């Protein structure tokens, strides 16, 4: 099955750029980047499997996610620049390492080829605990989610994927699969070190813990041509914290 995708931007002799979002996101999360990059090329924004309007599947490992991206690229002509954030960044790395002929340039935002020790299962618990019956307004959904998630920014992010038009309302995520696959999501599978020798830009949030010294070492082991750039004043969602600066850095690298 093919991922749900949105094509934007303009026709160009440059390769298209494929955007892959992070956990609990959707293709529209990278909309600011899509608009900036679309000024000079075609942009493909996808909903990753078990997210958005894409298909649900019990397998949420990175080999499967990379295969989904490969299918999209092949359908568009066979080669692309690829950008991924967080979970999408790991999928993009796996694609570049295992099918390097499909990737011209790689951009990874605030993630590394590294097995992290944290889990996001608490957010799955929170979403599953919300009584969705009778919900019609997003403000009402936010109030119910606030009983389980204190951070309003995190709530707003999650609520982008609550389908209030469905009867009854539903989360667009495949929450059971994401819960089951969480160890694989935060982990990192076997992959060929140095399998991608093309240009690679890793953008790290200065206030994030995802790309510190151990992770930077792992990046250089897998991607010998990697440039690691820290964006001041940003956390894990660096494209939301400093959208213009991140977009310009990506555009300059891809051009």
UniProtKB/TrEMBL annotation:
PANTHER family: PROTEIN ABHD11. This is Pimeloyl-ACP methyl ester carboxylesterase. It comes from Paracoccus versutus. GO terms for molecular function: hydrolase activity. The keyword Hydrolase applies. Residues 17-249 form the AB hydrolase-1 domain. InterPro entries: AB_hydrolase_1 (IPR000073), AB_hydrolase_fold (IPR029058), Epox_hydrolase-like (IPR000639). The lineage of its organism: Bacteria, Pseudomonadati, Pseudomonadota, Alphaproteobacteria, Rhodobacterales. Keywords: Hydrolase. The keyword Hydrolase applies.
């Amino acid at each position: 099955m093919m991922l749900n995708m949105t094509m934007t931007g303009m026709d160009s002799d440059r390769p298209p750029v494929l955007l892959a979002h992070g956990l609990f996101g959707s293709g529209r999360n990278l909309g600011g980047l899509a608009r900036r990059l679309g000024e000079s090329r075609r942009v493909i924004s996808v909903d990753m499997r078990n997210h958005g309007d894409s298909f649900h599947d019990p397998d949420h490992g990175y080999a499967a996610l990379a295969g989904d991206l490969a299918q999209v690229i092949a359908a568009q002509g066979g080669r692309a620049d690829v950008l991924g954030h967080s979970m999408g960044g790991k999928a993009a790395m796996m694609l570049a390492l295992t099918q390097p002929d499909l990737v011209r340039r790689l951009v990874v935002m605030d993630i590394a080829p590294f097995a992290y020790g944290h889990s996001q299962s608490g957010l799955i618990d929170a979403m599953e605990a919300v009584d969705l019956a009778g919900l019609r307004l997003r403000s009402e959904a936010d109030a119910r989610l606030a009983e389980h998630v204190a951070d309003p920014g995190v709530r707003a992010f999650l609520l982008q994927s609550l389908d209030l038009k469905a009867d009854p309302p539903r989360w667009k995520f495949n929450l059971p699969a994401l819960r089951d696959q969480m160890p694989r999501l935060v982990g990192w599978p076997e992959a060929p070190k140095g399998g991608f020798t093309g240009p690679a830009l890793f953008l790290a949030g200065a206030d994030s813990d995802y790309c510190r010294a151990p992770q930077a070492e792992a990046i250089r082991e897998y991607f010998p041509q990697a440039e690691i750039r820290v964006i001041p004043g940003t956390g894990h969602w660096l494209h939301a914290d400093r959208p213009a600066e991140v977009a310009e850095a990506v555009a300059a690298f891809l051009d």
